[in-house]
Amino acid sequence: MKKIIFSAVVLTLITACAGIGGTAKQVDPIAITNTENFAGHNTVLIGEFSVTFVTFDKTSATAKSSMFSSDTGYASSAIRAKLEGVPDEVMQNITDAAYQDFKSQLSANGYTIGDESALKGNATWQKMKYDDSPRRNTSSFKMITGGSREDATFAPTGKKLLSKNIGGMIPYEAYDAANQLQVPVINANYIVHFVYFGSETEYRSNAYSDIKGAEYSAEVSVGQGIQVVPGSGINWMRGASSTFSDPNGQILIQAPVVIPGAYGSSEDSTSGLQKAANVFSSVLGAVSGGSSSAKDINITANPSEYKAKASAALTEANKRVLGALAAAR
What we know:
alpha+beta; DUF3313 domain-containing protein; signal; 16 strands; globular; about 40% strand; two-stranded antiparallel ribbon
């Protein structure tokens, strides 16, 4: 007999857990690539500034036996979260404020921001394509896979977004233009997430006890809290890289910038069809040894509270990234 436990938990506040026997490894706030390439530069150009707002995301956890076990049972739990109640105007206002703060902090750290006419007048830079703001990424095959992350990326008012290559890579022309202009060009993007996820799994073999079979437990949780996630930051462009030379650099958020606390209400929006599927899987799992469960959560934000927390997170992200930039100079 196999015992299977799975659950989805909804939280409203960020919590911390501690265990006996050790402490969690601290993650450095910032990751810097090619530190030496930031030295000696006091004038920069801003090629692009953008903020990506995540509006749908999911996570899952699966408990199963070890690689060398013949036991094929498992327990899998998934949770999907959707953000509602934040209109485009609010996201645009957040982006505009973050852009002004970005420029202010650059100046406060001793940098001169060159006129964007230098980029507009460069023939190579003019070859690049642009997307209208906001640029939205939506899920495909949502009925089959449960969907993938959805988001909307905003440029400051009056500006457009650079079209990226496959994988979100910055076009080669941007690096070539930076080399021609002989001034570092900064491309900045921050990713603002509306929740945090947690997961926990447990597998217990009862081969050496009086209980037959194995026990599986999988739990996932979601909590409200705004964060600027790892991977956000700046690309520092000075020219094309080669096998033996890379004049460019990156300064990226490595430990998320978190502004904890609820900013809206959470509601279980799991469909009747999904609930029926959960029950069927549980019943079938008692026989087959494997089962799965999924839950949907809608978070309806108070726009003003969401704006306040997102703006606070972006201000702190600017401070962290641009402080590291100035220190590397």
